[in-house]
Automatic annotation (TrEMBL):
It comes from the Bacteria. It is an enzyme of class 2 (transferase). This is Nicotinate-nucleotide pyrophosphorylase [carboxylating]. It catalyses: nicotinate beta-D-ribonucleotide + CO2 + diphosphate = quinolinate + 5-phospho-alpha-D-ribose 1-diphosphate + 2 H(+). GO terms for biological process: NAD+ biosynthetic process; quinolinate catabolic process. GO terms for molecular function: nicotinate-nucleotide diphosphorylase (carboxylating) activity. SUPFAM superfamilies: Nicotinate/Quinolinate PRTase C-terminal domain-like, Nicotinate/Quinolinate PRTase N-terminal domain-like. Its EC number is 2.4.2.19. Residues 24-44 are annotated as: Disordered. Residues 124-291 form the Quinolinate phosphoribosyl transferase C-terminal domain. Signal peptide: none annotated.
Length: 297
């Protein structure tokens, strides 16, 4: 497994926020024609970031960067961010997650960008927490995949960690994953594994297997991590037992056609991981709101 970076890279946050603000305001410095028309630049106030749903929060760490960049673009003082809960916290509807204080123009211009990022991340964390809870006590962990929103992979994989999940590979560069098309192109599982080992001897090799024979061939070729794809529970249990009999140290992952209802059943086969693309490609947002306090004008 790839060791995940526990926190978001500040440089990545800065780049991502800049792109998001360009989308909303137009090229830097940009403008908000409504807010800048109706709110005097000297007006100050406070706003509460509030959960409108129960869930697990993530992405709150991006908020200071959002309000900081907005203040710089508008030429106004920096707003302060009093974060009330850390990322990864279970929250209830109505909980105040952070209080932002400063120029009202900054708060309102920053609103949608910070909500987009935090709501998206919190949705992923909330969904992941359901899987982590379902697997609790089984010894199996839930993994994410590369099925992420372009440009937001770092945030979404961070959110998976906040929800109790585990990151798999971060991209095509850090782990070799031999799948069916690679096997077709190389001629066999063994040939594909050998080709990767020769070209990139320093990387971990993972191999997808659809059948017992493929799994055993991959282990014989030296694979230390197998993706057992779209297997019914009885076949999955058979493959796990057969592989463990050959090499008990090989890591095994169930993937494909997984649902929360099946999570513990699949884990009972002895796999180490369940990989769930839906953590990042199908999680609904967690509804968050930024409410300006009445004294803000």
């Amino acid at each position: 497994m790839t060791a995940p970076t526990p926190a978001l890279d500040p440089a990545w946050i800065a780049r991502t926020v800049a792109v998001a603000l360009d989308e909303d305001l137009g090229p830097e410095p940009g403008r908000d024609v409504t807010t800048q028309s109706t709110i005097p630049p000297e007006s100050t106030g406070a706003a509460d970031l509030v959960a409108r749903q129960d869930g697990v929060v993530a992405g709150l760490v991006v908020i200071p960067e959002v309000v900081g960049q907005v203040a710089a673009r508008l030429g106004l003082p920096m707003a302060t961010v009093d974060q009330r809960v850390p990322d990864g916290t279970r929250v209830s509807r109505g909980d105040v997650l952070a209080v932002l204080t400063g120029p009202v123009q900054v708060l309102l211009v920053a609103e949608r960008t910070l909500l987009n990022l935090a709501s998206r991340a919190s949705g992923v964390a909330t969904h992941t927490r359901r899987w982590a809870d379902a697997l609790e006590g089984t010894g199996a962990l839930v993994l994410d995949t590369r099925k992420t929103t372009p440009g937001l992979r770092a945030l979404e994989k961070y959110a998976v960690r906040c929800g109790g999940g585990t990151n798999k590979r971060m991209g095509l560069y850090d782990v070799a994953m031999v799948k069916d098309n690679h096997v077709v192109a190389a001629g066999s599982v063994s040939a594909a594994v050998a080709a990767v080992r020769e070209r990139y001897p320093d990387v971990t090799i993972q191999v997808e297997a659809d059948t017992l024979d493929q799994a055993l061939e991959a282990v014989a070729a030296g694979a230390r991590f197998l993706l057992l794809d779209n297997m019914a529970t009885p076949l999955l249990a058979e493959v796990v037992a057969a592989v463990r009999a050959v090499d008990a140290e090989v890591e095994l992952e169930a993937t494909g056609n997984l649902t929360l209802d099946r999570a513990r059943e699949v884990a009972s086969t002895g796999v180490d991981y369940l990989s769930v693309g839906g953590l990042t490609h199908s999680s609904p947002i967690l509804d968050l709101a930024l409410d300006l306090e009445p004294t803000g004008r």
